[in-house]
Amino acid sequence: MTDRELVDQAIKMLDYSYVPYSKFPVGAALECADGSVFTGCNVENAAYGDTICAERTAVVKAVSEGHRDDFVRIAIAGHSADYCWPCGSCRQVLFEFAPDLEVLIAKEGGDFVKLSLRELLAHGFGPKALL
Ligand code: THU
């Protein structure tokens, strides 16, 4: 799958975002080594802190279906004028499973940039410190 195709899958997920409070939809598409893709959107809650981000929705879907050590790329999309940068919590959760992940970050219109998770979370704290 091309980067463009993965970003387009993340963009499609914007339609499913549940964002009555922020009105800021985010979509994600997480690709594994076998080619499977786990998508996600943000799901907000009246108790604001219980909101789950799009990236973490995708990670939880993947892990709960047996994928853990094989994340290759994630695409993240928003309707934002700037690139839809992942929040610190999502960077940390991604780092737990895939510190060498490639991250595609899109903005309104579909243009995207590609960075490594290590660039986005320099000197990250991960399981190696504890295991
Ligand atoms: N959001 C994400 O889904 N991913 C991020 O990495 C940044 C923030 C969501 C959470 C909330 O629903 C909305 O964007 C505004 O913060």
From TrEMBL:
Enzyme Commission no: 3.5.4.5
InterPro entries attached to this UniProt entry: APOBEC/CMP_deaminase_Zn-bd, CMP_dCMP_dom, Cyt/Deoxycyt_deaminase, Cyt_deam_tetra, Cytidine_deaminase-like
Cofactor(s) required, per the database record: Zn(2+)
Gene3D superfamilies: Cytidine Deaminase, domain 2
Lipoprotein among keywords: no
Known catalytic reactions: 2'-deoxycytidine + H2O + H(+) = 2'-deoxyuridine + NH4(+); cytidine + H2O + H(+) = uridine + NH4(+)
All residue ranges annotated as the CMP/dCMP-type deaminase domain in the record: 1-128
Record-annotated membrane-spanning stretches: none
Membership in a protein family: Belongs to the cytidine and deoxycytidylate deaminase family.
Function: This enzyme scavenges exogenous and endogenous cytidine and 2'-deoxycytidine for UMP synthesis.
The protein's name in its UniProt record: Cytidine deaminase
Source lineage: Bacteria, Bacillati, Bacillota, Clostridia, Eubacteriales
